[in-house]
Amino acid sequence: xxxxxxxxxxxxxxxxxxxxxxxxxxxxxxxxxxxxxxxxxxxxxxxxxxxxxxxxxxxxxxxxxxxxxxxxxxxxxxxxxxxxxxxxxxxxxxxxxxxxxxxxxxxxxxxxxxxxxxxxxxxxxxxxxxxxxxxxxxxxxxxxxxxxxxxxxxxxxxxxxxxxxxxxxxxxxxxxxxxxxxxxxxxxxxxxxxxxxxxxxxxxxxxxxxxxxxxxxxxxxxxxxxxxxxxxxxxxxxxxxxxxxxxxxxxxxxxxxxxxxxxxxxxxxxxxxxxxxxxxxxxxxxxxxxxxxxxxxxxxxxxxxxxxxxxxxxxxxxxxxxxxxxxxxxxxxxxxxxxxxxxxxxxxxxxxxxxxxxxxxxxxxxxxxxxxxxxxxxxxxxxxxxxxxxxxxxxxxxxxxxxxxxxxxxxxxxxxxxxxxxxxxxxxxxxxxxxxxxxx
Length: 440
Hints:
The protein is α+β, with helices and mostly antiparallel strands.
């Protein structure tokens, strides 16, 4: 289960388009990926200017059709259940000695086609690399990695599990051993974007999702890295080195704050023959789905404890992070507000929630707006929570450094004590085959 096999499955399903003309990884490939994000086909770039032998792929998880293919499920609800069960029942991957990865004779990040995405960013930035960090266990997570030297990145560390591992190692006077995995099966990527409890390795979550198909080999710094990865970088987060990080673009498509962040020193690079790397444009549909899907799962699981939930979406306009739309089958008054509160508890970064009835297509912004227009009253159905912790990705936050903000929930469900027909959309009876009507 590697990236190449998944890309071939997309090709077989008619979900892949190929670009054979040489293209630059600086701006050009990201621009093409951005142009086609969320529209259907994944993109395979067979020739990267200045990097012979390398290929790149983009938009491999930018639609829910591709996500379901990656997880080998038939519905989004099946995908929710599969990820929840994998987090609850992780399975450690098997360790082997052989790998097709070859160690390069020297460490030089300039020999890798690390993209440059946006004009104000300081240089090449790896957004699709999974960082494996070693502490009491092996954590896997996504972090921005900006090249600052031929063997160094500056890493964006948010206060989550790798941040804790780094601080615990630093308190002991140790650098933190890491591996950076670039180019892996999307099921592995979805597991790395998940947030199981501290101490539960996302490698084991990935192996459960992949039905026991994840194999690892041991690097010199003790990290178990996937055998089937396209590129693996071995190294350390240095305990006593910092560098300015940013301005880089986040999932909202805006420039994040410049911060002093830790430095990664790369000590070895391993590549597959003819490696296939993954280009991920921050703020695009693929970024939203990859980073937000597991949070959507958590919201669905929390809301179904307080209401009969039909569907949940972390929306594209909210970066797959700040906005949610939830459809419920309301049985009693108050369930809409309960769903709002459950969603905020399940995903603390959430800023705005809209709850609608199950006759509304939550993937259609027009229908969601129509529900607000016809079923919502601000004096009764608006929930506002002030001075609460949200997301540092919200540029409108009261204090962006800690994400202090105001949250809002909109209960756009029909009041049950009113005549229900007043809230139904009028329908024209279908008595003919409209597709057979000839227009002359």
